[in-house]
Structures are given as C-alpha cells and as structure tokens.
Amino acid sequence: MRNYELPIPSHFDRRNSTKILQVPYQKVEGEAKAWANRHDLKPSANASVRICVMPIDCQNTFCISSGELYVGGAEEDTNRLCEFIYKNLRVIAAINPTMDTHTAMQIFHPVFWVDSNGDNPEPMTIFSLEDVQKGVWRVNPGVASSLAKGNYVALQQYALHYVKTLSENGKYSLCIWPYHAMLGGVGHALVASLEEAIFFHNVARNSQTGFEIKGGNPLTENYSVLRPEVLTYPDGRPVAQKNVRFIETLLDYDVVVIAGQAKSHCVAWTIDDLLNEINTKDPELAKKVYLLEDCTSPVVVPGIIDFTDQANAAFQRFSDAGMHVVKSTEPMENWPGMDWLKSAGPAWV
To answer: Domains of the chain, with CATH numbers?
Structure first.
C-alpha cells in the first residue's frame, strides 16, 4: 500500500448504497477518532496542499433504485466514491457535497403547468418554445398566488421568457421532472454510505463538511451548483445569481476532485460553469480539476430519454480544456500532475 493510502475501514458496507438508512453518528465518531489515532491523521488545517472532493447531488432521489429520479449505475458509483474517500483520507483536506433541494411548486415540476383541459404534464415531458408560445402548456393559475403574489399575467410572461432563454442559450429544453429531492423528504438526504464516509472524514480530519444547497428557486432550474439556468426576468431584473462565494471557494483549492449524479445534467453543467469561470481568470487552472469518470452516470430512461452521448461529449470538452478525466480506482499518484504524492510521507499533512 502506498504511504498516503489507508485501508478501507471494516464498518464500510457496500450494501448500504442501496438502502435508506440512519447513520449511527456516535458510533461512527468513535471509530473515526480511533482511526485517526491509529494512522496518525492530522487536522486538515495543517495540509500543505489542499485537495477538495465535491460529490454532486449524491442523494437518495438519484442514487437508489426507489428514488424518484434514479440514475442507473449510481449505487456502484457511490461505492467507488466511498472507497476513494476512505483510501485517500490522509490527503483529502475538504469535502463539499452539493445537494439538490426542491419544493413542489417549481417551474420544472408538473403542478406548475396545465394544458387546455387543466391537466398537468406527465413527468419527463419535454417543452419546446413553440409549445409555450401556442399555449399547449401554460402556467397553472393556481400557483400564481404562491409564486407571483397573484400576478398570473406576469408569471405567464416569465414562463415564456424562461423557455425562450433556454433555447437561445443552448441549454437543455425544459423537462418536467418527477417531484424529486424534496426538502423534508427522505429523497433529499445523502445516500447513507456516502454520508457515513463524509462524516467519518469530518471527524478523522477535523474538517467541517461544506454542504452546498442548490435548486430552491421556484422560477429556474439549477442543474449547476454555480449558476442557475436563467438569471433574469424579461425586464432584466435578477431572478437569481451566480454562486460567487462557492466559485471562489473551489478555485482556492489546489486540487478539486468531482464526482456525482447525474453526469449529463448537474455534474456536466457544474463543471461547465466552473470551466467558464476558470477561463475568465486563468485557463491553466483547469489542470487542477479531476473528474472521476467511474463515479458518475448519465440520465437514461429506456425508451424515453438517453443523455449518454451528451454526457460523453461534455467530458471530452472538459478534457480538451485541460481538466483530467480519471478513475477513482487508479492511485492518485498516477494521475496527471500528481506524481509528487509518490514521495509524500505519512506526515505530509
């Protein structure tokens, strides 16, 4: 075993990536403290090179088979990510998981829209600009009170502006998603095995987990944790804004490792936004970003939607820009630009 790698703790159970479970925090805390003592782990604050792992939306709603927007392959993605965290606990300074967070009345949920009969669209319905222009789908008058202080006309105008902006900016067309990642529901929680690994890291390395909540704005999708899909109302007033604070946090790390769900949506758009920010500052910064290609999967609904090609094209674009597409099972010292780890001793951090 390499001098910076650690064994997988005995408590880790791969089966827990398929279940909704409660993490036994006090028990895990004791195990993490003992693990830190046994392997002489230092607080992350002492790290000379700051490596951050960003698990994107690794929540029950996406990652277990009963989840509302289950991504096929997510269980094994999660297990590989957990093992990566445990093995590299000594050199991972910070973990910043993002969490998709929704309520019922949002522009991409069924209740927001109705057809001429007053019926809501079925989940996975794709809206075109023409659909909204011709009134095939219109805003449900019943949501105007909660979302627009009763101003239905303004809300309808915004909805048209929204789908038009998506089209003009080359974004995915508006998709009506099943209710998912609902605030207060079990689908919102991190997958138990990963939550356990993150909590274990928190205690063992004295590193506060940097949870990043996204997606709560009812008037825009927020695939990317860094930027909503639409930023303004028709008159130019802001409806949402970039997450400047978190962008600066990520760019301040020496290494950023990205995984999570789904490769074609929240993962791809987050990386795309991060790359745009990097390109405005210094394109060379792309070299400090590593994408765990075996810890992420695209959205595929057999017979309905398959975003595999779009996801692969995005990752190729990121690679071409200087980011590194790597595997979690490959030793970090073999990753491009990380050979310095070969000489890193146990006291490195």
So the answer is: 14-101+184-348 (3.40.50.850), 110-168 (no CATH)
